[in-house]
């Protein structure tokens, strides 16, 4: 069994299966599933199911219940047929409602049923849809069969006419017969007895006009709230149908409607009007034209509403875009303001940085000057200390030396002083050539010069250290 659909409540039961409402799991759309069990069927009944599937695939019309698909469930020995779901119920329910309240069905609604069912039967009998009404053009000749088969429904009754959004749809083609040629006639006894035509009831060859008889019986029941032929036994019912005598319809309905219903319930099938004859009669042509205009107006109204909705949507989108544009402009203005603030902050930070750099340079220069001054003061203090130490040491050394000028020989002979030896002034000891006596006799060495040299040597020594 397919898991595509979720089973819902059962809306009908028959001898060979049930009719269940199901819902598509993904799209959540509602449709009807006919669950037909074939394990107790004979070959003829199984072939009838196959024939029904062939017919459903061929029929595509606004006023025929739409066929979607079918599947074979071998485990249950059944066939599931998925078809369109009509939320308005069937016509039998409407007749029961009017009968329970003892009120008449509006004539306008009966005309709607007549015209829409003729549209459905036209598709079945002639294999094509009805052309649009042209009141200023003569009706063409009877259309020829342009397909390989003619479909006869054979079971038209209020229970098989369904309603969906004020559109009537013909359904349940389980007893439909497909004729292979135009001149072939069916000979199978089927259908609901109350709406069965005399030729079908008498097991005589019948043609598509047998559906017109059944449609006339349905229209009669809508006017009278009861079928035209009723009896307690099957033989009595058969006798009444063969005579074709029906009670008069209420005069509250128009003469045209009563005449059409009486023409449909005609015993002789040759005298009975065809679907083409009825649909091209003057009264029905005017009604069809009115229905086409009403449908055109509904389409215009629907299109107008769609255009209004589109306009509202476009207006909302325009308002949204305008608000979005205003928001974008506001954000742009905000960004510009923020950008200008950032630039001002950047300029102020640059100025602050430059001022801090200048201040830093000034402080650096001041610190450099201060450090230089400290260094100079330190040097001055250092040299003053050095000079004092040198002066002190020189003075101490000078105390032990004789005062005044002395002869070089005396200095050399002085055992108590070693200044000349330490400063390489011992001419006799370190000179490669001895100083001549004439030099000794003729030259004097001043002690003050020696003092200066000694002082300078001491100073240099302190500098090195």
From TrEMBL:
<keyword id="KW-0808">Transferase</keyword>
<keyword id="KW-0547">Nucleotide-binding</keyword>
<keyword id="KW-0418">Kinase</keyword>
<protein>
    <recommendedName>
        <fullName>non-specific serine/threonine protein kinase</fullName>
        <ecNumber>2.7.11.1</ecNumber>
    </recommendedName>
</protein>
<dbReference type="InterPro" id="IPR050660">
    <property type="entry name" value="NEK_Ser/Thr_kinase"/>
</dbReference>
<dbReference type="InterPro" id="IPR008271">
    <property type="entry name" value="Ser/Thr_kinase_AS"/>
</dbReference>
<feature type="domain" description="Protein kinase">
    <location>
        <begin position="5"/>
        <end position="287"/>
    </location>
</feature>
<dbReference type="Pfam" id="PF00069">
    <property type="entry name" value="Pkinase"/>
</dbReference>
<comment type="similarity">
    <text>Belongs to the protein kinase superfamily. NEK Ser/Thr protein kinase family. NIMA subfamily.</text>
</comment>
<feature type="binding site">
    <location>
        <position position="34"/>
    </location>
    <ligand>
        <name>ATP</name>
    </ligand>
</feature>
<feature type="coiled-coil region">
    <location>
        <begin position="286"/>
        <end position="317"/>
    </location>
</feature>
<dbReference type="InterPro" id="IPR000719">
    <property type="entry name" value="Prot_kinase_dom"/>
</dbReference>
<keyword id="KW-0175">Coiled coil</keyword>
<keyword id="KW-0067">ATP-binding</keyword>
<keyword id="KW-0723">Serine/threonine-protein kinase</keyword>
<dbReference type="InterPro" id="IPR011009">
    <property type="entry name" value="Kinase-like_dom_sf"/>
</dbReference>
<dbReference type="InterPro" id="IPR017441">
    <property type="entry name" value="Protein_kinase_ATP_BS"/>
</dbReference>
